Amino acid sequence: MQDNKVALITGGSRGIGKAIALKLAQAGCDIVINYAGNTEAANKTIEEIKALNVNAEAYKFDVSNKDEVNENIAKIIEKYQRIDVLVNNAGITRDDLFIRMTDDKWLDVINTNLNSAFYLTKPVVKVMMKQRFGAIINTTSVVGVYGNAGQANYSSAKAGLIGFTKSLAKELGGRNIRVNAVAPGFISTDMTKNLTNIDEYLKLISLKRFGTAEDVAAAVKFLALDTDYITGQVLEVDGGMVI
Ligand code: NAP
Questions:
Q1: Domain locations in the chain as residue ranges
Q2: How many angstroms does the Cα of residue 93 sit away from the middle of ligand 1?
Q3: Which of 177, 179, 208, 215 sits 20 to 30 Å CA-CA off 222?
Q4: Would you say 191 and 93 are in contact if contact means Cβ atoms under 8 Å apart?
Q5: Which pLDDT band, with edges at 50, 70 and 90, does 243 fall under?
Q6: Pairwise CA distance, residues 15 & 146, whole Å
Q7: Over the stretch 128-174, which tens digit does the pLDDT of each residue have?
């Protein structure tokens, strides 16, 4: 259908996912983004990507719903016949101290941030195995490496993504499919806009600023397109956090 590489980015309508979509589009990839409900943001992102002269489409589905994932991935594969880059990026927070954490808060975060990667990656890997090429990047977090009070659910999901990344790298390397993760620190997006105690967080960051979504996108583009010999790694994009 086309010669461009095809990149699928979940949660690509806003924040880090949007910056990744734009960065991969600048590199010449056709872009498929997924989002949960904010159609206005998704449409705006698609317009910005198309202005870069690549194909771009948005699919609205809930990454934590296996049936919705399978239905939509089947449509995407039918249309594009290949997926070269998969970025499992969609994510949410439902923070609370462990002692107060409800089952719903636990399950929402595990389903959206971790089980989603299992659902998405399964059908995509089948296509990548046939093409004998693929780059998968999972968006984890520094809290998946170091833990964080008030985020037992989120840090468990993000730590799970790291195990997922390293295991798949071992299973799929022989098929020329690389699997890596980026672990952002504090990045300025909607997810972090209501944080208080900013000065306390800045003390932990060597570069003394929050990162931008573009800072993370540059790392994802590097792992996806600029290297052929890195797999199973977790790249911390955190301005040098000392936790
Ligand atoms: P964000 O600005 O809140 O954007 C979240 C994106 O995920 C949106 O596109 C949203 O779609 C989508 N999404 C949420 N739930 C979904 C679902 N169930 N199904 C499909 N799409 C869904 O978040 P962000 O800050 O860019 O974070 C992106 C990723 O980076 C997340 O995995 C997050 O955990 C991780 N991360 C962020 C930071 C940070 O400091 N911001 C640090 C470390 C890791 P709608 O627009 O439709 O809502």
A1: 6-237
A2: 9
A3: 208
A4: yes
A5: confident
A6: 23
A7: 999 999 999 999 999 999 999 999 999 999 999 999 999 999 999 99
Secondary structure (3-state) at 156: helix
Three-state secondary structure of 163-186: HHHHHHHHHHHHHCEEEEEEEECC
Choose one of 8, 14, 49 to mutate for the ligand 1 pocket test, by most ligand atoms within 8 angstroms of C-beta. Answer: 14
Distance CA 153, CA 99 (A): 12
Q: What is the pLDDT of residues 92-139, one digit of tens each?
A: 999 999 999 999 999 999 999 999 999 999 999 999 999 999 999 999
What is the distance between the alpha carbons of residues 191 and 136, in angstroms, rounded to a whole number?
23
At 167, which amino acid appears? S
Say whether 80 is catalytic. no
**Model-level pTM?**
0.98
CATH superfamily placement of domain 6-237? NAD(P)-binding Rossmann-like Domain (3.40.50.720)
88 pocket-lining for ligand 1 (C-beta < 6 Å): no
Give the type of residue at 134. G
Residue with tokens 């890596």: 180
Count of other CB atoms within 10 angstroms of residue 171: 11
How many angstroms does the Cα of residue 155 sit away from the middle of ligand 1?
A: 15
Residue 199 has pLDDT above 60, yes or no: yes
Residue 3 is predicted with a pLDDT of 84
The CB density around residue 226, as the number of other CB atoms within 10 Å, is 10
Is there an atom of ligand 1 within 6 Å of 188 CB?
Answer: no
- Residue 216, ligand 1, Cβ within 6 A: no
